[in-house]
Amino acid sequence: MFNSIAGKYDFLNHFLSAGIDIYWRKQAVKVMGQSKPATILDIATGTGDFAIEALQLNPQKIIGVDISEGMLAIGQEKIKKRKLTDKIELQLGDSENLAFADNMFDGTMAAFGVRNFENLALGLQEMHRVLKPGGRIVILEFSKPRAFPFKQFYNFYFKQILPVFGKLISKDQSAYTYLPESVQAFPDGADFISILKQVGFKNTQWHSLTFGISSIYTGIK
Q1: What pLDDT, in 10s, does the model give residues 6-60?
Q2: Distance from C-alpha of 48 to C-alpha of 182, rounded to nearest angstrom
Q3: How many other C-beta atoms are found inside a 10 Å radius of the C-beta of residue 135?
Q4: Is 2 helix (H, G, I), strand (E, B) or coil?
Q5: How many CA atoms lie within 13 A of 65 on its CB side?
Q6: What DSSP string runs through 137-206?
Q7: pTM of the model
Q8: CA-to-CA distance for 163 and 158, rounded, in angstroms?
Q9: DSSP-derived secondary structure for 90-142
């Protein structure tokens, strides 16, 4: 599915969110910056937008991992055009079985990716395993607004409007039907914090963005 929409993915992200996704990534990178990481692993990196945004932290190296060859191909082109190949390396890989040693990275992060893990706890355990002691995890993910009337407006847009435009632009029948379904199934808020604690993260925190449409989660190994 992600291979089929890779060419339209960036445009649809910005179009369907009215550009707010760019602001969300900037806020998440600010949280990561509290640890001043030298090495960062970007899980489910997709086309590399989150990794590119994290360059403002001036790390020595960012490695992005994704299971979709199509998304990585778009990301590679983007990185080459911006002459960032010395700073960002993209690799094909399974987020739930990372090919990295224990205690390797100062920071691990993911934007709109952990929702797609087949086994959420296992993926988070891997992010914990490759972190150095004292390293920080930062997760940016969709959440479910709960306040009236924004909850009702959001649900109408997400379930009725977004899939129509997503299908028209991406030409993929399922991708933007899958999106609202996956968000509804995702254990957001306090439930996600509970899972972070279960896999070993300490000092866990979360705060919502834009009326609860998305949230930033963080923890320390």
Answers
A1: 556 665 666 666 789 999 999 999 999 999 999 999 999 999 999 999 999 999 9
A2: 21
A3: 23
A4: helix
A5: 20
A6: EEEEEE----STTHHHHHHHIIIIIHHHHHHHHH--TTHHHHHHHHHHHS--THHHHHHHHHTT-EEEEE
A7: 0.91
A8: 7
A9: EEE--TTS--S-TT-EEEEEEES-GGG-SSHHHHHHHHHHTEEEEEEEEEEEE
Contact indicator for 115, 142 with CB cutoff of 8 Å:
yes
Helix (H) or strand (E) holding 71: helix 69-81
- Count, residues in the chain: 221
Residue 65 φ/ψ region, left for φ over 0, alpha for ψ in the -120 to 50 degree band, beta for the rest: beta
Name the superfamily (CATH) of residues 2-148+184-220: Vaccinia Virus protein VP39 (3.40.50.150)
* CA-based nearest residue to 92, from 124, 65, 53: 65
Token reading at 175: 């991708």
Contacts of 132 (CB under 8 A, 6+ apart): 103, 104, 105, 106, 221
For residue 42, the cross-strand partners are 64, 109
